[in-house]
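User: Show me a protein chain along with its predicted structure.
Assistant: Here is one chain, sequence first, then structure tokens.
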Amino acid sequence: MSFRGYKEKIEDGDVVILYLSNNLHAIEVCTEIKNKKGEMVENVYQTTFGALKVKNLIGIEYGSRVELSKGWGHVIQPTPELWSLTLPHRTQIIYTPDISMILLQLDLVPGSIVVEAGTGSGSLTHALIRRVKPNGHVYTFDFHDHRAKLAQEEFESHGIADYVTVQHRDVLEKGFSEQVTGRADAVFLDLPKPWDGVPHAVDAIKAQGGRFCSFSPCIEQVQRTCEALTQHGFQDISTMEVLQTELKVSRRTVPVRDLTFLKHKSCDNPVEEKPSSDKSYVVGAWPATTPGHTGYLTVATLPPAFLKRKLPVTEAENGKSVSTEIEMKSDSDSEEDKLVVDESVL
């Protein structure tokens, strides 16, 4: 399959990206499709530049130019970045600028185990799979059953189902499944109340510690998430916003005055009102508009179990004390927190 790895030629069942004059279209390569009446008909993809017979794509090389009835385009290899621009939107999605920062902050490498809560349209999931394969795995959860099933079908059709496990589950209510308890190198939350998912993230992360990241559109969500992270022993907590700005390279003409007369002290000639010449420069200009707000990324580190600071944890919403592995160890002779070594995990 084309998402599983790069290859030279297009095969039946691949997903290709059709590039048409700065427009991208995702096409599943198959010779026949069902029409509205349920009948099998020839697969013909309609574009603004005319019709494309999809069967003609089989066997040609990626990057090739293809002829349409009213023009031409190029078929290129699908990537998570291109897929995020062409996928069917089941929910609002995370785009490449935020995705790239998430992958960096989670410290993911091939072989990592990562847990994602909030599968949505699968935009981030495709990028996570590419980062951790071939030996890693992604466990992704969604509370909406239909979305979870569509995501599973999508991963299977893209040939990457071996690297991901999709589960229908309300993570905030039930937590992550026992399948991921104590196995995750990193946890990502894209949920309305990520602070309620922090205790479950602690359970999922390995005893050796790991990274945490949450995506929230509102600063009030960030504040409550940071409080929960602090209470549960996370360190190096920080929040950031990614705004991508691209410089546009263009040529500009600048009026230039001839000021050579200033070199002569006795010169009485006044400066001319109009420029005497024009000069052209290649410049990098800022865009006329700035990108809008998408969301805040809150990242933190959960230290190894034997180095966790022993801090009291309380549940603010119901006022009840929560029993966790984080305890208070105080010393009457010192006001500083002490580090307690749990010899059972050494």
